[in-house]
Amino acid sequence: MKLIYTDSLVVGAGLAGLRVAIASKERGLDTLVLSLIPAKRSHSAAAQGGMQASLGNTVKGMGDDEDVHFQDTVKGSDWGCDQEVARMFAHCAPKAVRELANWGVPWTRVTKGPRQVVVNAEKVTIEEAEEAHGLINARDFGGTKKWRTCYTADGTGHSLLYAVDNKAISLDIPVHERVEALALIHDGKRCHGVVARCLITGELRAYVAKSTTIATGGYGRIYEVSTNAIICEGIGQALALETGVATLGNMEAVQFHPTAIVPVGILTTEGCRGDGGLLRDKDGHRFMPDYEPEKKELASRDVVSRRMTEHMRKGKGVDSPYGPHLWLDITLLGRKHVETNLREVKEICENFLGIDPAEDWIPVRPTQHYSMGGIRTDAKGQSPQLKGLFSVGEAACWDMHGFNRLGGNSLAETVVGGMIIGKYVADFCEENTLEIDTALAERFVAQVRDEIDSLVEGQGSESAYELKREMQRIMMDYVGIFRNGPELTKAVEELEALLIRSRNLGLKCKKRHANPELVEALRVKRMIKVALTVACGAEARTESRGAHAREDYPQRNDKEWLNRTLSSWPSADATRPQLDYEALDVMKMELPPGYRGYGINNAIAHPDTEKREKQIVEILSNLGEEADRHERQHALMPFEVPESLREKNERLHDKPLGNSQQLGEESK
């Protein structure tokens, strides 16, 4: 057995994982990152539109602050998020953006004076303040009150990943590439590291560490069509699930993005609509104002996806060999804007569709995009059940997104969550020791070796590729944008049958080293378990909340379902997860459940909501009018972040306004 020791082990080399690794290394800790692919090829590079942070530099962002960002995030989550975590996030986001600028991210900047933008399909001239010239710019995104999404054209994820990876390189953080974690080493109470397999040589290694951070991204590839990279298969979540100890949170919370191109499912950023793009049906009609007259195309993305699906169900979709679709029209933005601020979208359209989006409409429809669920952690990013196991980014249910994520909040979560949780990971490593138990490590290595032996030497007849295709079809057909009881029951039963079949997997290629079929066989049984947690959670949750939309239970039911789903795997021979629930305490919420602002308000109220609202009024009245917004916030819901991140954020509008700033105000 090859055993490798480090203080801080990170599984996943995307933005979230690298940011945790940087925080550990800066503390002088021995740090090591494992990755399926070279770090700069991680899925973080695919993020286009930007990251949210309440800088308030632009005219359209004036008046923005942590309070507004927090409120948007909570409402966007449909009151499913951890409000303490949402506060931590909103407070630290401006710090992360500025830190990234120092690391070399070429943020798009404000240019003083007049500029033309498209708002509600009309060209409008706004005046940017002289004082804002050269500061970080922001664009509009769905579900937000202010223009808050900081960006670098439409290649924001690419820019961030290169800058953060270069920072990691400058710190000499080693990344073991083409290595896949297959099991967590643990004693039932404490995580000791992972068993990993080299994808080139087939060698099994035990990586032992004081802390283990899972940052492997989401589980979109359990679906047939997804905007996710093909490596986003939920294996990180599966590793935690298979411990039988650690829990996964809100796995049924799966988001569909409104504008993926047809048929391949590649994302066109929300920045297209944020910059003024429109959605049109087969008749060329702009239909979103018919459904959401206030926010239109910039309603929260779960809402837009449902409205698009409803419209296609009415026969308003464009017929194609790949099924109906709708149009995304960004021609009104003009060629210069498309080629400057949406250049990745232009290249995608040219290379995959053979069209010019500055002149042609883009065929789009909602496609699986993001996983709000993941490894359940506390506010410090650690599993409540398994000490020393941390998770961050899309792999985690930290839980700042609840049941729906706002556009721009995921790219922000990778670096903001990584920055915050990275410091807590470093604290943990400094404050805790680990007795290296080689026998424990050998036991888990032996289990993985036996699993590989049974695949290579066994006489199984099931094909990993066939099982994977079946799983993806089931998820697409029955656990999609709209869900209902009979279809979810069918999904659970069919996935359960697939899991049983996966115990009889066989290989045509018997190689133990670079063998894609072996890799697929090792992954697919884990993926099916993850798919079962999604389907079982969705079947059990008899309400509609955020991206979880039950046609047979259309109301958000705070009275019975204001809770977080916890999934665990009861035993190795089990065929379904065990579901438990973690209640969200209304009496501790800064923002009690209310109306999101879309459609009719049909929510069933929680019995404590009215009580908490009265309590908030009393708390604020006792503070008096002299209290500032920070004191008021602290009185309602105190939150903690690492000491080095506690300083208040400064913004342009905190300073006296010049004449040009006042002109900017008038042009809003």
Quantity of strands, as a count: 22
Helical element count? 19
* Inertia-based shape: globular
Question: Mean of residue pLDDT?
Answer: 95
Tell me the major beta sheet. Answer: 7 strands, mixed
Q: Would you tell me the structural class of the helices and strands?
A: alpha/beta
Residue windows where pLDDT falls under 50 for at least 5 positions: 657-668
Gyration radius (Cα, Å) is 24 Å
Helical content band? 25-40%
The fraction of residues in strands falls at 15-25%
Distance between the termini: 65 Å
Strand and helix layout:
Blueprint: E1 2-11, H1 15-26, E2 31-35, E3 51-52, H2 66-76, H3 83-102, E4 113-119, E5 122-128, E6 149-150, H4 156-170, E7 175-177, E8 179-186, E9 191-198, E10 204-214, H5 235-241, E11 248-249, E12 254-261, H6 271-274, E13 278-280, H7 288-291, H8 301-316, E14 326-329, H9 335-341, H10 343-352, E15 362-371, E16 374-376, E17 389-391, E18 396-397, H11 409-431, H12 438-457, H13 464-478, E19 482-483, H14 485-501, H15 516-540, E20 549-550, H16 558-561, E21 563-568, E22 578-583, H17 609-623, H18 629-636, H19 659-666
Parallel strand pairs: 1-2, 1-10, 2-7, 10-17, 16-18, 19-20
Antiparallel strand pairs: 3-6, 4-5, 8-9, 9-10, 11-16, 11-21, 12-15, 13-14, 14-15, 21-22
Helix pairs in contact: 1-4, 1-11, 2-3, 3-11, 5-15, 9-10, 13-14, 13-15, 14-15, 17-18
